């Protein structure tokens, strides 16, 4: 089950389309869909989570709490809409494309992909691009 929660004035248009897409991402990695909760928020909200749970006093676009067990993908994915907007401007891309990248990024972490090394980051970026392409299929 995929759910979308809002702690800011932002809301996804056509949640069903995004729900189907996230399911496709999980299926494409030969995983099983568990409970995925997306929480869209602002910088301040996510900063508090970052400090409280990770002891990081920095802004970030995403924090994910992974409850995956084996192939059953589950977790809470917090996304700062403000940070995604700023990143989209910095990377000269559309907001919605950057949002899809971040949404896919959280799921890919649950599937076992990392991004701490250059090699891992390159693979993660490649996977993100593949998953974004699934959106309109």
TrEMBL record:
Single strand-specific metallo-endoribonuclease involved in late-stage 70S ribosome quality control and in maturation of the 3' terminus of the 16S rRNA. HAMAP family: Endoribonucl_YbeY. Keywords: Cytoplasm, Endonuclease, Hydrolase, Metal-binding, Nuclease, Ribosome biogenesis, rRNA processing, Zinc. This is Endoribonuclease YbeY. One of its GO terms (cellular component) is cytoplasm. Belongs to the endoribonuclease YbeY family. Its cofactor is Zn(2+). Binds 1 zinc ion. Gene3D superfamilies: Metalloproteases ('zincins'), catalytic domain (3.40.390.30). Its EC number is 3.1.-.-. Zn(2+) binds at residues 105, 109, 115. GO terms for biological process: rRNA processing. InterPro entries: MetalPrtase_cat_dom_sf_prd, YbeY. It comes from Flavobacterium rakeshii. It is found in: Cytoplasm. One of its GO terms (molecular function) is zinc ion binding. The gene is ybeY.
